[in-house]
Write a structure and sequence with these properties.
Length: 279
């Protein structure tokens, strides 16, 4: 079982090595990188490339580790007991299975995505240590142990909003997705916008990387944002000449696809003002 990328996803050599190493070691693959560099999409493409079903657990700031295992609905059971419902005698009727339970009892190997783990409370990763390590957990209400017959491929993504505990990191295989170099970005663009004209692509990517390197930028535009920008350029049928900027107009065409806060827009407006004043 080897991942080599797919026709819809350009996987660099170091990324494919990391994925296959995690699969061989049977350890979770912890993927970090800038937002928009394809961390979540990687899990979907691993699922597609290996022909495995994917189970996705999207983490929020309020998510608790226990929810990934199961939740016991004591309130519903109390209400049913008051109403004299027959189902109240079987506690299993009030157990809501979580995503880890779903992955463990899938019956076949699956890809389990734990997306943006750093959004949750700092204790969240520690609370999953044993379950992800042993691939089993105990259900206290029913007295049963849920064990994975087929160990899932676990992909965990993080945007580095919080530091993850050392004990958790020790149990993972780690990979940082570096921002694509221009030659890799060209391949990514070709996947999403096949047949794009070479001169337009060269001009657009040159401008895009110049924007990313601008000093003082609060949020650098990401891979997903340059793809959106190029989609707009193609829809508007703009030419390389249309993209050219000068000192009086430092903002890129359709800049709302690339610059996502007013500070960065004002930065380019100030650059234009200073260029005009120095003329």
């Amino acid at each position: 079982m080897k991942f080599t990328g797919t026709q819809d996803y350009v996987a660099t050599e170091d990324l494919t090595i990391a994925v296959n190493a995690a699969v061989t070691l049977e350890r979770p693959l912890l993927v970090k990188g800038e937002p928009g560099t394809g961390k979540t999409e990687l899990a979907r493409q691993i699922s597609s490339g290996l022909g495995l079903r994917m189970i996705e657990w999207n983490i929020k700031s309020t998510t608790k580790a226990q929810q990934g295992l199961y939740e016991y609905d004591a309130v519903s059971r109390l209400r049913d007991s008051q109403l004299g419902e027959e189902r109240v005698h079987d506690v299993a009727n009030y157990i809501r299975k979580g995503k880890l339970w779903e992955a463990f009892e899938a019956g076949e190997k699956v890809v389990l995505l734990i997306d943006e783990i750093d959004k949750a409370d700092i204790e969240f990763p520690n609370d999953l240590l044993q379950e992800l390590d042993r691939m089993e957990f105990f259900v206290y209400e029913t007295g049963e142990t849920i064990r994975a017959d087929n160990r899932p491929i676990v992909i965990i993504t993080s945007n580095n909003e919080k530091e993850l505990p050392d004990a958790f990191l020790r149990r993972c295989f780690f990979h940082y997705i570096r921002f694509p170099e221009p030659d890799v970005m060209r391949k990514i663009v070709e996947v999403h916008h096949p047949g794009i004209k070479e001169d337009l692509l060269t001009t657009a990517l040159t401008q895009f990387y110049d924007i990313r390197e601008q000093q003082g930028l609060k949020k650098k535009p990401s891979t997903s944002e340059v793809l959106d920008w190029l989609k707009l350029l193609l829809a508007e049928d703009l030419s390389p000449e249309d993209l050219k900027r000068d000192g009086a107009n430092a903002l890129p065409k359709l800049h709302g696809a690339l610059l996502k806060n007013e500070q960065d827009v004002h930065l380019f407006e100030r650059l234009a003002f200073m260029a005009r004043r120095n003329q």
